[in-house]
Design a protein that fits this description.
By secondary structure, the protein is α/β, with parallel strands linked by helices. The C terminus is likely disordered. The chain has four domains: about 100 residues, 2-Layer Sandwich (Beta-Lactamase), CATH 3.30.450; about 290 residues, P-loop containing nucleotide triphosphate hydrolases (Rossmann fold, 3-Layer(aba) Sandwich); about 30 residues; about 45 residues, no CATH class. β2 and β3 form a beta hairpin. The strands form three sheets. Strands 9-8-10-11-7-12-15 form a seven-stranded mixed sheet, with helices on both faces. Strands 3-2-1-6-5-4 form a six-stranded antiparallel sheet. Strands 13-14 form a two-stranded antiparallel sheet. Helix content is about 40%, strand content about 20%. The protein binds zinc ion.
Length: about 550
């Protein structure tokens, strides 16, 4: 259902394209998609993370519209074979808007995506990015440090850029020399020396980092730690009285540390220089005009209790009104902000056992899920939103296996029939519920030992079971971990994996292609982030943008 109709017979293309761009800005869209179909062009806007149809054009104007967009983006209109990128700068209501445009030749023509950066909207003070006060305070303390590395992490579209710019804005004082290496420069920051990476002209991260030392800088921002070498250079630069801010594409702080430790970078450099890691994801905010408070279901109460430790009776649900879209208005980050303590520093420098590192990371800091469910309790977002962005593979510690299974089990009914194996965990669900209320810290025997064997690592969504064995992780030597992970209950693992993997063939295919097959179980745990990405690609999951895989998208949870 199109939002806007044009008179394509009479109105000139120039005017139509301008209206499309202007409408997108006024409607606060973040992206415009021009999708060629065999007989028409469909134009969609992304708002609050969701794509909806804006208009569609008859076939005879399809090419004109695409060509016009390419012209104003400074692209070569005679070339429709190669992907191109360009920029559009447009002023609307006195505000300047920068748009990054990219084309992709597809079967029915050229697909064009316009990404809109709204300076006014994106450039926020740290107090206004939507994090909990506790996290904001931690961030403010981190940037008081004169040297070290702060990482802002999250998948694409998780709001990393907004947070990074907010940090730079906070640091941007007359007595500071700030250099920001970007690719691309998303918005101008007055007082910050922004440098555009241009590999075709020889301006690479490598050359810039090599030459930047003589620039007498206080703060260096690097778009992303793109490779081991960039990471090492960034860490070295931070050893000599400079604050370095950069990003990594990871899902949790734990995964970030794990990823860093798997890089070809000296552990001591990491341990000595990392000062804090921020991890974030975006959830849709409940519309304050129409959200309604109702009695929470037993399922919701149990999940919230288990993750936040709080008893709730009622929570807010989306309704929908004139002001909002299906009960939601805007987005907000949920986050983990973890300053690197001496204990963590030591653990990182010594490349300690991952579960030991996980434990000390979260002993004084909320996990991203806990932050999310706190926002459910406060009515900022809904239970289903937090479930939607939950990543079953990365968000749970081994000892949280029971709650993970509980969350999984409740949403699985429709695919139980597809599985060949009996769902032991569903049989045990009632028992789980009882036990959960009895003892939240002691892992009940709800899970048969499942595996995180060499091959079936991606099945970490089902995850391992060494976890159920209390919290003696510190003592678990690498060898022990290996041994413990051997026992498998394939049927069960499959049952859980099934909904995600779609077909067993795909899964096996995946399993046969471990990137580093000879690695031990322990080393494998380190490889997890890469593996997950592969898995996503293999399974053709909807990884459009960024969004973490979330079962909430595919399966009803209530
Ligand atoms: Zn509303």
């Amino acid at each position: 259902m199109a939002i806007r109709e044009f008179d394509f017979e009479r109105e000139p293309t120039v005017s139509i394209v301008k209206k499309i761009l202007t409408d997108a800005i006024k409607m606060k869209a973040t992206d415009i998609h021009f999708d060629p179909h065999p007989d028409r062009l469909v134009i969609r806007f992304r708002n609050n993370g969701e794509l909806t149809e804006y208009t569609n054009t008859p076939d005879n104007v399809k090419l004109n519209i695409i060509t016009r967009v390419k012209i104003i983006a400074g692209m070569n209109i005679t070339d429709s074979i190669l992907p191109q990128t360009g920029t559009i700068n447009l002023e609307v209501d006195g505000k300047s808007h920068s748009m990054q445009v990219s084309t992709l030749p597809i079967l029915d023509g050229e697909k064009v995506v316009v990404h809109i950066s709204n300076y006014a909207r994106n450039l926020k003070n740290i107090d206004r990015i939507g994090m909990e006060q506790e996290d904001i305070d931690k961030i403010k303390n981190l940037i008081k440090e004169k040297q070290g590395v702060i990482l802002v992490t999250g998948t694409n579209g998780s709001g990393k850029t907004t947070t990074t710019y907010a940090l730079l804005k906070e640091l941007n004082k007359p007595d500071m020399n700030i250099i920001s290496i970007e690719d691309p420069i998303k918005m101008p920051l007055e007082g910050v020396n922004q440098v555009q990476v241009a590999p075709d002209k020889g301006v690479t991260y490598k050359t810039l980092l090599r030459n930047i030392e003589s620039q007498d800088l206080n703060v260096l921002a690097i778009n992303e730690l793109v490779d081991d070498e960039t990471t090492r250079s960034a860490l070295r630069l931070s050893t000599t009285g400079r604050l370095v801010i950069s990003t990594l594409n990871t899902k949790t702080v734990f995964q970030t540390v794990d990823t860093l430790l798997n890089m070809n970078v000296e552990n001591y450099l990491l341990g000595d220089n990392l000062i804090g890691i921020i991890s974030q994801r975006l959830v849709k905010k409940l519309c304050p005009n129409c959200r309604s408070k109702k009695e929470a279901t037993e399922y919701e109460k149990t999940v919230i209790k288990k993750i936040t430790g709080q008893d709730v009776k009622e929570i807010y649900y989306p309704e929908g009104c004139e002001e909002c879209k299906e009960g939601y208005l805007g987005q907000s980050p949920i986050s983990e902000v973890i300053p690197i303590t001496p204990e963590l520093r030591d653990a990182i420098s010594n490349n300690r056992d991952r579960e030991y590192i996980r434990k000390i990371l979260y002993q004084d800091n909320d996990t991203i899920l806990k932050d999310g469910f706190k926002k459910v309790i406060s009515g900022d977002t809904s239970f289903s939103e937090v479930i939607r962005i939950t990543d079953i593979k990365t968000d749970f510690a081994p000892e949280e296996e029971n709650i993970k299974q509980y969350i999984l089990g409740n949403g699985e009914k429709e695919f139980v029939d597809d599985t060949k194996a009996p769902r032991e965990d569903i049989k045990l669900e009632n028992e789980q519920l009882k036990k959960m209320n009895e003892d939240l810290t002691k892992g009940p025997a709800i899970t048969e030992p499942k595996s995180e064997t060499n091959k079936a690592k991606e099945e970490t969504k089902t995850s391992s079971t060494k976890e159920v064995k209390e919290t003696k992780k510190e003592e678990i030597t690498k060898e022990e971990v290996k041994k413990e992970e051997k026992p498998t209950t394939e049927p069960k693992a499959e049952a859980i994996v099934e909904p995600v993997t779609v077909s067993t063939e795909e899964k096996e295919d995946k399993v046969e292609n471990p990137t580093v097959p000879e690695e031990s179980a322990v080393e494998e745990v380190k490889e997890e982030p890469k593996e997950e990405v592969d898995l996503f690609d293999k399974l053709n999951l909807d990884s459009d943008d960024d969004d973490d895989f979330s079962y909430g998208d595919s399966y009803s949870i209530i």
